[in-house]
Design goal:
By secondary structure, the protein is mainly alpha-helical. 62% of the residues lie in helices and 4% in strands.
């Protein structure tokens, strides 16, 4: 997930400004300028990570899944950080939220909605790289338990693509829907958000469902949904949809690759994967 709800201001990650005449006084920061985010305290980051990993181990009963989930989360959020820094929104920071997950925070808003789409999809796309060590361990040892880690990492990135606030999918597809009409975005996000919350409750993911419900309520209280910056153009909207579909397909493919050695066929892998989402039980 990403958090870019901050006032946009120039910073060291933006391009260099034009050179000022020598005799001009150096510009000083405004008094009301927000301070630079120094990130999560190291001690609290360690405690939060241990709490998150312990909670995942408790509900899954597998230390492999717990390690994979925490590792996959960090790589996922670092993908957002890399994109934020590259697009002039940094230096971005990662915050670990106990029992829930993590978030990447930028120092300023994206310059355009297209940049926002790229940042939102960078997390799930880059996050799939976290599955490589678990694939390597499976190939090296032949032990199927490492495939649990592969599937867990794919699942984290795929769920984040759900177009429900505040998940990455809502920030990737939201601007596209808003280009049609702002009410189309709001109606779609609310409808999908309610469905995802219902899915979380029916599948026992009560903390996840409560978190999404609070986020959805917060979204409804907000006035303007679109951040400052240039809105999407229609060509950019088309590229956004294509990138979203490609990223979601890649996440699903990695998840199936983690299930197929266990199930033996694509059909059975699809059925097993669907069961994790509450389908076909």
């Amino acid at each position: 997930m990403t958090d870019t709800d901050r006032t946009r201001r120039p910073g060291p990650w933006d391009g260099l400004p034009p050179a000022a005449p020598v005799e001009r006084e150096i510009a000083r920061p405004q008094a009301d300028e927000p301070p630079l985010d120094k990130g999560q305290k190291p001690v609290w980051a360690v405690i939060s990570t241990l709490l998150l990993g312990g909670f995942i181990w408790f509900i899954s009963g597998s230390w492999v899944i717990a390690v994979a989930a925490v590792w996959g989360l960090l790589v996922h959020e670092y993908g957002h950080v890399l994109a934020m820094n590259k697009l002039g929104m940094g230096p971005a920071r990662i915050y670990i939220i106990p029992f829930l997950g993590g978030v990447a925070k930028s120092q300023r808003l994206p310059a355009s909605e297209w940049h926002g789409v790229l940042v939102s999809l960078a997390g799930p796309a880059f996050g799939l790289l976290a599955a490589i060590p678990f694939f390597a361990l499976f190939l090296g040892t032949g032990q199927g338990m490492w495939l649990q880690g592969v599937f867990a990492i794919a699942l984290i990135n795929l769920v984040n693509l759900a177009p429900a606030p505040p998940l990455d999918g809502s920030k990737a597809l939201g601007p596209v829907l808003a280009l049609i009409h702002p009410m189309v975005e709001k109606a779609a996000m609310v409808a999908i958000g309610v469905l995802v919350v219902f899915w979380g409750i029916t599948n026992g993911a009560y903390i996840f469902a409560a978190f999404l419900a609070l986020a959805l309520f917060g979204h409804l209280l907000r006035g303007a949904w679109r951040p400052d910056g240039c809105p999407l153009t229609w060509p950019e909207a088309g590229r956004s949809v294509v990138l979203f579909v490609v990223t979601a397909t890649a996440c699903a493919a990695v998840g199936l690759a983690g299930l197929m050695p266990v199930t033996g066929s694509v059909g059975e892998a699809l059925a097993l994967g669907a069961s994790y989402f509450g389908f076909g039980r």
